[in-house]
């Protein structure tokens, strides 16, 4: 008789050490992947804050896509006042709202909520004089900013003045940041919707952490014409104590 074959030995099992190392290796891989997916938005936001565009960079970050914005952008860039401002070396041109990280713009009033077609049609152009001495800004105000029909809301104009006068003086303050202590606005004429306006501001006095500023919003007119003053304001801005530790929405560059 032919002897029956002996049964095959059972397959050998990995050692306890090998199984333990394999388990922890897989756990580390999946934990790392999960952490990367979860942390990516935070890393992206932090990178945007730490690597903000320069003043010059902001001039290249906006491209109009609709017909109205293209028209507004072209009108501003070809206006004699703009050409004159660009010829003056004491002024630095920028579009400050484009320094705000995209992840934060939806939560910013003037850089997100009020910016876009029908509102502030395109990101405003701003020219700042070194040392926080003066500022000029040009904007186009759409019909969705009205209080009375076809008339821009006075509260919005006050917001423009608050931001514009504040930005004007920041370069004169020790840590380049300040809070509004008071703002007085005098309305001189109704501001029609769908119009170009110029905001002009001048820092009149600085004492330590305090800066006083005067400014106005006027119509943007053709060369040789006299602009109409729409509203005027004066304000006091005070740099908070320990301002050097505050998170800044608009990073400060040496040009200021």
Low-confidence stretches: 38-49
What pattern of helices and strands is seen along the backbone?
A: HHHHEHHEEHEEEE
For the secondary structure, the number of strands is: 7
Name of the CATH homologous superfamily of the largest domain = Hotdog Thioesterase
Radius of gyration: 29 Å
pLDDT average, as an integer?
86
Overall spatial form: globular
Q: Helix tally?
A: 7
Distance between the termini: 104 Å
- Portion of residues within helices: 25-40%
| Beta-strand fraction estimate | 15-25%
What about the largest sheet?
A: 7 strands, antiparallel
Can you tell me the CATH architecture of the largest domain? Roll
Count of the domains? 2
Identify the strand order in the major beta sheet.
Answer: 1-2-3-5-6-7-4
Could you please say which CATH topology of the largest domain applies here? Thiol Ester Dehydrase, Chain A
Which structural category fits the helices and strands?
alpha+beta
CATH C-level class of the largest domain = Alpha Beta
Can you tell me about this structure?
The structure is a single chain. With 256 residues, this protein is α+β, with helices and mostly antiparallel strands. It has 2 domains: 17-51; 53-245, Thiol Ester Dehydrase, Chain A. It has helices spanning 16-50, 55-58, 67-77, 80-86, 102-105, 109-113, 154-170; strands at 91-94, 125-129, 134-141, 179-187, 195-207, 210-219, 229-238. A hairpin with a 4-residue loop joins strand 2 (125-129) and strand 3 (134-141). It is globular and about 90 Å long. The chain starts with 15 loop residues before the first helix and ends in an 18-residue tail after the last strand. The model is unreliable at 38-49 (pLDDT under 50). This is Thioesterase domain-containing protein. Keywords: Membrane, Transmembrane, Transmembrane helix.
């Amino acid at each position: 008789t032919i002897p029956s074959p002996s049964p095959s030995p059972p397959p050998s099992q990995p050692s306890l050490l090998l199984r333990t190392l394999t388990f922890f290796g897989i756990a580390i891989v999946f934990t790392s992947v999960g952490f990367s997916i979860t942390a990516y938005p935070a890393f992206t936001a932090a990178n945007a804050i730490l690597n903000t565009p320069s003043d010059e960079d902001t001039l290249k970050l906006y491209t109009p896509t609709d017909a109205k914005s293209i028209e507004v952008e072209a009108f501003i860039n070809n206006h004699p006042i703009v050409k004159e401002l660009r010829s003056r070396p004491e002024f630095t041109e920028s579009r400050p709202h484009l320094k705000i990280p995209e992840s934060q713009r939806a939560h910013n009033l003037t850089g997100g909520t009020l910016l876009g077609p029908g509102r502030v049609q395109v990101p405003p152009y701003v020219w700042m004089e070194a040392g926080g001495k003066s500022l000029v800004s040009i904007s186009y105000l759409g019909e969705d900013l009205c209080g009375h029909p076809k008339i821009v809301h006075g509260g919005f104009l006050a917001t423009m003045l608050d931001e514009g006068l504040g930005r004007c003086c920041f370069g004169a303050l020790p840590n380049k940041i300040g809070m509004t202590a008071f703002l007085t606005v005098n309305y001189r004429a109704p501001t029609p919707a769908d119009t170009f306006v110029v905001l002009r501001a001048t820092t009149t006095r600085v004492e330590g952490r305090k800066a006083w500023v005067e400014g106005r919003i006027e119509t943007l007119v053709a060369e040789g014409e006299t602009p109409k003053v729409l509203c005027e304001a004066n304000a006091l801005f005070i740099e908070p104590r320990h301002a050097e530790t505050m998170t800044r929405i608009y990073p400060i560059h040496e040009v200021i």
